[in-house]
Amino acid sequence: MQSEQLQARLRAVELGKEVVGVVGLGYVGIPVAVAFARYFPVIAYDINPKRVEELARGIDPTKSVTNEDLQAVYARIRWTTNPEFLRQCSVILVTVPTPVTPERLPDLSALLQATQTVGQNLQKDRQPVIVYESTVYPGCTHDVLIPRLEEVSHLKACEDFHVGYSPERLNPGDPYHRFETITKVVSACDSNTRTFLRHLYGKVIDAPIHEAPSVEVAEAAKVLENTQRDLNIALINEMTMICYRLGINIYDVLDAAATKWNFHRYVPGLVGGHCVGVDPYYLAYRAYELGYTPSVILAGRRVNEDMPYFCVWRIGRTLLERWGRPLQKARILVCGVTFKENINDTRNSLAFTMIRALSEMGATIDAMDPFVARPPQNLPIHDWYTFPEVPQHAYDVVVITVAHEPFRQWGLSFFAQRIQRDGGLLLDMKGIYRTEARSLDTTVHYETL
What we know:
The chain is of the alpha/beta class. It has two domains: 3-213, Rossmann fold, CATH 3.40.50.720; 237-448, 3-Layer(aba) Sandwich (Rossmann fold), CATH 3.40.50.720. It is built from 14 helices and 14 strands. It has helices spanning 3-15, 29-37, 49-56, 67-72, 109-120, 140-153, 191-204, 215-246, 250-257, 279-289, 295-323, 350-360, 405-410, 412-416; strands at 20-23, 42-45, 77-80, 91-94, 129-132, 162-165, 184-188, 209-211, 331-335, 364-368, 384-385, 397-400, 424-428, 444-448. The strands form two sheets. Strands 3-2-1-4-5-6-7-8 form an eight-stranded mixed sheet, sandwiched between helices. Helix 5 links the parallel strand 4 (91-94) and strand 5. Helix 1 packs parallel to helix 7 (191-204) and helix 5 (109-120) runs parallel beside helix 6 (140-153). The longest helix has 32 residues, at 215-246. It is elongated, with a radius of gyration of 24 Å. The mean pLDDT is 96.
């Protein structure tokens, strides 16, 4: 972007005259589109007609924003499945998911499809700026995405169009860390475009804007953020497995260790979702391409992916040792199937892995979640309950996998009442009832992870 072009674009930003396109209307794209629509006209594009139709009616199926938020910007967003509307855009933000394949390799299929669509609709006279927010491995934007844009559009990057990278940092279910309140990292293929993006995002974000010196730095920062969290949780999960064998409680250990000023507290649990359980594989993939074997990163992944099977082993052992009941004949209620608390997102939920493993051992599985209307298909769940339904059976085991706020409000007694009168296991994986458990009926055996 030339200096004179930059000045003209900065004036357009201040006047709210940039037309912003958002490609991919999921958990990231919807709040991004709504935030930009407060200041700019927005073209919001997705290939899913049902999702676009719901959004056009003011309903967010992901519950990433409120209906009031959608209504407030109703006149400033065009929700569409027609990619030709992207030709009106001077800025296009790509926010499609980047999962991994069953072989744990980067799955760029949605990102490449989105890039193809964007490239087919670039208008040289608008000098469009394409910004990728999707998580990728370091080097992907320059090595894969820009060449695809040039090939499809028959235009030249940094001359006819410009490319930036600004990794998403949204935290679903968190009312405090929202798109507008999280420090935003911006990068671009040239310094003027980076300056433009600083002003563009600065118009809609209340938090600081950090300019990364290169696209590769911004790409690496994103995968590092979630890889660090994955490894920290893996350490606590592994410590949990050790403490169980020692006969001590991990939460008691955490309470003691947390009294040191520089100890960072994490809690054990199932690590799923679209970021923490995925991004390390993107970093590992790039490391392998460079001829380096990332032993620490993949060790953490192995520990966290083993956690559902550790839980199954614990459940089976407790049933057999305390009551002489085989896991094969147990009826188990799993409470919470989302990958984290207070959301309806079940992507890569390791609760499903645990359910499948328990079912393969012969147990009968019921499940409930106040945020999920129905379970995914092909999951071995016998009975499903969602709010305000109440499970009707007596269970050998009740497992609380997620610290949903409704679970906290219902209290331990709600779940203890679901257990058989002659006793059973209540496994509180997140330790949300540790204090309440001191007065628990002795026929119910309470454990945390």
